[in-house]
Design brief:
The protein is of the alpha/beta class. The chain is built from 12 helices and 18 strands. It has 2 domains: 5-152 and 317-350, Alpha-Beta Complex (Quinone Oxidoreductase, Chain A, domain 1), CATH 3.90.180.10; 159-294, Rossmann fold (3-Layer(aba) Sandwich), CATH 3.40.50.720. It has helices at residues 44-50, 99-103, 134-137, 147-150, 153-166, 182-194, 207-215, 230-237, 253-261, 283-287, 303-311, 330-338; strands at 5-11, 17-23, 33-40, 61-62, 67-74, 86-89, 92-93, 113-114, 128-131, 138-140, 174-178, 199-204, 221-224, 243-248, 263-271, 292-294, 321-326, 346-350.
Length: 354
């Protein structure tokens, strides 16, 4: 590292993002690794953060928690890796030692947090990133796989896995997915291809997302929520019975309510959305039908299984990767991705070009 500054997308407070020159991160602890970021992509939660929906994040903070990189420096306690290794990474760090980690609740590690949201744990929309507890959180990229083939594994697919497995989707089921942004698209993909649902119904307000899923064969029915009664449409598709399971990624009162009311007896509604405020749910409707509502974000499980399925070609997210630019254009990328402009689904960020 001949120069000691790098370019990074810095959050300075609500609606204040800039591409700044900042210090290149250094090893601070023996379990740290420094990565040269080879590919990154903003997440919808970065967009929420940038406009101030996550007031607990203290600026300045470098955003970005979906990424791949190459190891350029290693702390003395890091095991199983070498300088030059290509890696992907879990979106939140975890120590492996605290009470929560010992219970297996690694996404709630007492010493952890999502990259870019915790003081001192900067994100990956930068040229370099420091990875604490590297031996725990890095995922080696298998020989023969490209960065773009694995980059959506830990966050998009990991979150979708939690939703689909929490909804107990089974072979032959009819599953509705409310909100088909990148996580919802991954939920449709997993429900159809991995959990072997017979019928997937995708619901969204943006027609281009629905059309993409239909074209890819990942949704059997697409419903634009602007076009009439979603609950009635799902009940009609299912012969009046309702879906066996529903996954919500939208986090709005109307989507959760529609998910519940279009799910059949003994069905499960699993939400992986972020809820900015409390909402009312029709608990009487659920009670008389034995419908369960399950919440949460993700447990970082299923990643090994999905990596194998990426290797064997059964999981392919290339259809979602609609845009790509170097880090130089990150502000434009945030605007295009965050505003769902130009048919954008995921916007890949390649290294800064000097
Ligand atoms: Zn994310
Ligand atoms: Zn921990």
């Amino acid at each position: 590292m001949e120069n000691n500054t790098m370019k990074a997308l810095v959050y300075h407070g609500p609606n204040q993002l800039s591409l700044d020159d900042v210090a290149i991160p250094q090893i601070e602890h023996p379990e740290d690794v420094i990565l040269k970021v080879t590919l990154a992509t903003p997440c919808t939660s970065d967009v929420h953060l940038a406009v101030g929906h996550m007031p607990f994040v203290q600026p300045p903070s470098i955003l970005g928690h979906e990424f791949c990189g190459e190891i350029v420096e290693m702390g003395t306690a890091v095991q199983g890796y070498q300088v030059g290794d290509r890696v992907h990474c879990i979106s939140a760090i975890f120590c492996g030692k605290c009470t929560m980690c010992q219970k297996g609740y690694i996404s709630y590690c007492e010493n952890g947090g999502v990259f870019g949201t915790v003081k001192g744990i900067d994100g990956a929309l930068a040229e370099y990133i420091r990875i604490p507890y590297a031996s725990q959180v890095l995922i080696p990229i298998p020989e023969g796989l490209k960065e773009e083939e694995v980059i959506l594994l830990a966050d998009m697919l990991g979150t979708a896995w939690y939703g689909v497995s929490n909804a107990e989707v089974k072979k032959g089921d009819t599953v509705s997915v409310f909100g088909v942004g990148p996580v919802g698209m991954c939920a449709c993909l997993l429900a159809k291809k991995v959990f072997k649902a017979k019928t997937v119904i995708a619901v969204d307000l943006l027609q281009y997302r629905l059309d993409t899923l239909f074209k890819e064969g990942l949704a059997d029915y697409i419903i634009n929520a602007n076009d009439g009664d979603v609950i009635k449409k799902i009940r009609d598709i299912t012969g009046g019975h309702g879906a066996n399971a529903a996954i919500d990624t939208a986090g709005a009162a109307n989507t959760i309510n529609a998910a519940i009311r279009s799910t059949g007896h003994y069905g499960i509604v699993a939400t992986v959305a972020i809820f900015p405020k409390p909402i009312e749910v029709p608990i009487h409707f659920m009670t008389y039908r034995n419908i369960q509502l399950r919440t949460g974000i993700q447990k970082c499980d299923g990643l090994d299984i999905m990596l194998d399925l990426i290797k064997s070609g059964q999981i392919n997210t290339s259809f979602m990767q609609t845009h790509s630019s170097p880090l130089n254009d990150i502000l434009k990328a945030m605007d295009t991705f965050g505003g769902n402009k130009d048919g954008c689904i995921k916007y890949l960020i390649t290294p800064y070009e000097r």
